[in-house]
Amino acid sequence: MIIAIDGPAASGKGTLGKRLAHHYGYRHLDTGVIYRAVAKALLDAGAELTDEAQAVAVAMELDPEKFGDPVLKTQRVGEAASVVSAIPRVREALVDFQRHFAAGPPGAVLDGRDIGTVICPDADVKIFVVADPKVRARRRTLEAKARGEDADEARVLADILARDERDQNRATAPLKAAADAYLLDNSHLDIESGVRAAIDIVEAVRAGRQRV
Ligand code: CDP
Ligand code: CDP
Predict the structure, then answer these.
(1) Is 15 annotated as a binding residue?
(2) Is 10 known as a binding-site position?
(3) What distance lies between CA 173 and its chain's CA centroid?
(4) ipTM given for this complex
(5) Has residue 48 been placed in a domain?
(6) Are the C-beta atoms of residues 184 and 197 closer than 8 Å to each other?
(7) Confidence band of 162 (pLDDT split at 50, 70, 90)
(8) Number of domains in the chain
(9) How does pLDDT run across 84-132, given as a tens digit for each residue?
């Protein structure tokens, strides 16, 4: 069983992915962390984010043990991740790791931008999560403040919109809902209600399958 969750920045994909994985006893991979790790390695090395050769080299040597680094969650690294993730060869270098993760037992939930379209086009359930940009900016600002960072909501909104624009318009694996994805708008849902709505989708797909 593979559950693919995609959606724009701060739509709640990660939270939902984690909760769904917990509910079903599956493993969870936040694929954004992978691109963030590539971006952080380039920033640390003082390299250009558009340096294809170095970005690919970094992508091929990633250490999943470091995916928990809290610096990866920052706005700055997220912005840099959206620049390096537009390089096709960087994306290619990361495909096998993601597919291997998805295929392992007992099941997996992956969240990102291209899980339902490119990484796992045959996923059992695909959910495309969306939320109003202002709601997303509010959530991210609260999160940054809780971490003790100084975040200006208007600035966070501008960053989110710029990142969505870049992710939607890149040539390779752009952010978009797969044709067979279920749309979940959580603008007016708290986390619990969003998780419940997603479980309902998964259960409906399973029930439909049993009837066949
Ligand atoms: O958490 P948030 O939605 O802000 O970002 P993220 O999911 O951690 O992703 C950071 C950046 O990585 C995105 O803006 C995308 O450019 C890129 N990304 C991607 O291209 N493909 C994925 N499957 C996941 C992330
Ligand atoms: O992974 P992604 O960037 O799409 O979003 P996230 O990190 O899961 O969620 C962004 C923020 O929104 C987190 O602080 C969540 O707790 C919050 N959130 C919320 O307040 N209500 C929801 N229905 C979903 C997420």
Answers:
(1) yes
(2) yes
(3) 13
(4) 0.98
(5) yes
(6) yes
(7) very high
(8) 1
(9) 999 999 999 999 999 999 999 999 999 999 999 999 999 999 999 999 9
User: Does 12 appear as a known binding residue?
Assistant: yes
pLDDT at position 212:
60
Report yes or no on 101 lying in a domain.
Answer: yes
Q: Of 196, 180, 195, 185, which Cα lies nearest the Cα of 125?
A: 180
Ligand 2 atom nearest the C-alpha of 30 is: 1
Give the ligand at the shortest distance from the Cα of 115.
1
Pocket residues: Cβ below 6 A from ligand 2: 7, 9-15, 139, 143, 186, 189-191, 194
Within 8 A by CB and 6+ apart from 146, the residues are none
In short, whether 141's Cβ falls inside 6 Å of ligand 1 is no
Q: In this structure, is residue 188 part of a structural domain? A: yes
195 alpha-carbon distance from chain centroid? 16
Residue 69, domain extent = 2-207
CA of 32 to the centre of ligand 1 (A): 4
Residue 29, domain CATH: 3.40.50.300
Pairing verdict, β 125-130 and 108-112: unpaired
129's tokens? 């999560």
Q: In this structure, is residue 212 part of a structural domain?
A: no
CA 102 to centroid of ligand 2, rounded, Å: 22
For a ligand 1 pocket test, name from 35, 129, 156, 176 the mutation site with the most ligand atoms within 8 angstroms of its C-beta: 35
